[in-house]
Give the backbone structure.
Amino acid sequence: MRKKIVAGNWKMNKTRVEVDAFFDQLLNSNYDGEAELIICPPSIYLNGLPQKSASKNIGVGAQNCHYESFGAYTGEVSSDMLKELDVKYCILGHSERRTYFNESDEEIGKKVSSVLNSGVIPIFCCGEKLDERQSDIHFQVVEEQLSEALFSLDPDEMLKVIIAYEPIWAIGTGVTASPNQAQEMHAHIRKLISNQFGNDLADKISILYGGSCKPDNASELFSCKDIDGGLIGGASLETDSFLAIANSF
Ligand code: 13P
């Protein structure tokens, strides 16, 4: 059985007070669903959160890191630093990083290796733009993203990776990929992993869907064979909607 995961990507949102209020509510909830919960707040709030949420087995993740361990990289945070705070996960290659910070597949690949070396689990994001889907090259685009950043990993490293398919046209737009569109791409991703690393390994990789996933569409998406959960933006900012999505399995 693959791990089911519902992860919240808070992006650049929330104040310290709001972070504490969210975690107090989450930790006081009686969530006992089958999906593992992960919250990825802005890095400045990470310190202390893994310890605070350990009792309820809630994972804490960063949204990005640098691929070097230390050095003259003003404003950056390394995966070793995340590990030192007991941060378990790190989102890498989010389309907002690719678009606004010009992250290339090559750079994202270096980040994936760096977080794995530090003992942090990458949540690797991939997904096509609207015009790429309209030109019918979406499968090819995602294949390139995966092969450049992940396919030179050793199998035991690859086994640790979580993948999030996030079609860019669905992020923050209110337009969700239909369950068919999402399932088709997830199956494609699993097939690519299988071609590279074998069926057994591909079967064990959790592939999450992201892009306007909400309480009212999550259960239909999560019931698809190759969709193992979600990477949630806007709807992860409130405990109620985040838990409603987690309870959609
Ligand atoms: P939304 O759920 O707000 O569309 O964002 C998805 C996302 O980018 C998660 O990483």
About this structure: Residues 9, 94, 166, 171-172, 210-213, 231-235 surround 1,3-dihydroxyacetonephosphate (CB under 6 Å). The mean pLDDT is 97. The longest strand covers residues 121-126.
